[in-house]
Amino acid sequence: MAGRPTVADRLAAALGAVLGTTELPLRLRGWDGSLAGPPGAPVVAVRSRKALRRLLWSPGQLGLGRGYVAGEIDVEGDVFATFAALSSAGRLAETGPMAAPTVRERLDLLGTALRLGAIGPEPAPPAEEADLGRVGRRHSRARDAAAISHHYDVGNDFYELVLGPSMVYSCAVWESASGDLVADLEAAQEAKLDLVCRKLGLQPGMRLLDVGCGWGSMAIHAAQRYGVDVVGITLSEEQARLARKRAAEAGLTDRIDIRVQDYRTVDDGPFDAISSIGMSEHVGREQLPTYVRTLAALLAPGARLLNHAIAWNAGTTTWSRDSFIARYVFPDGELLGLTETVGALEAGGLEVLDVEALRRHYALTLRAWVQRLETHWDAAVAATTEGRARVWRLYMAASALAFEKGDMGINQVLVQKPGGAEPPLRRTDWV
């Protein structure tokens, strides 16, 4: 005769109702120690009834994410294996925003919560969740500054633990997919920076605008290796402070000007080249024509712009505003398809010289960052909060899997403003 369902059995049924499946590829550990699910599968521990209550109020990706950030849901073992298994289950395996449970599934979830004593008011979201609703209109200058601050002003020490000494927070370019990713990370990031400089055709005496300059790594590389003068702009006060310090330590204060400035207010062109590395994801679809028009106007005739950005691949859509990544990682961020980006650049009067896809490279980069975070976990938590470290672990591991699956890509699009010198006949100038 079958025994009475355990806490884990009931939690498995609840998660199945949320995901729309009865076949979970995971084992669940209840707060009482009970286990349910296929032997040998990755284990997810539910440590508190509050996690179930969160799912009752937000039955989807957001509720799961809140429970994980709060430490009420945890991963036992390899995060990549666990998140891969979870993302293959039910609605999470589908393309696009996660569909809501049916009425029947919601009733089943309510019944489980009643049986496990999880009924109650909606728990407050973890402190790491962004709330920009009162800041102003979406993609206004004030709200963009607040969105950037939410993501980047979380402590330079934290970022150095994750990113390594290069302090480059964008896709590296790797020689090989094998080997020690952490040991090879610095060389791969330097290779990316150098590739950008070569594509832009930088020469001594040129003037470069680095849009979204981060902690100054591109500016320092371009000034040191190519003898250019650089204006770097960011909306993050913490990034600017460290970028200026790094430029001074490199003896480049006369060559590098780091500003806290919105790209829409730059008025001291023309520039001989513009790099935009991992910045246009914050611009948004509505503002994309303004972004292109503004940067095109800042280019000298014949000057080049390199736009390095994550993209949704064919058949996928951007995340919803109630997704985990929109609430915790990139508030107001929007990913566009490659065709949209190229179309906007061409509509702005810029000629496309080259498009290079780096999807597999970003998966390797993210895996290296997750390894660094895991290795330095205690120090990372001390540098920020445990919730923030959990946000970064979840989003980076899940993003690595999305790049590996092909749901997301990343592309460098090189364009040139008409006039001036003709571009090279072949790509051999920069490959």
Automatic annotation (TrEMBL):
A Pfam entry, by short name: CMAS
Record CDD domains: AdoMet_MTases
Keyword field: Lipid metabolism, Methyltransferase, S-adenosyl-L-methionine, Transferase
Tagged with keyword S-adenosyl-L-methionine: yes
Domain of life: Bacteria
Protein name: Cyclopropane-fatty-acyl-phospholipid synthase
PANTHER family, per the entry: CYCLOPROPANE-FATTY-ACYL-PHOSPHOLIPID SYNTHASE (PTHR43667:SF1)
GO biological process, one term: methylation
Similarity comment: Belongs to the CFA/CMAS family.
GO molecular function: methyltransferase activity
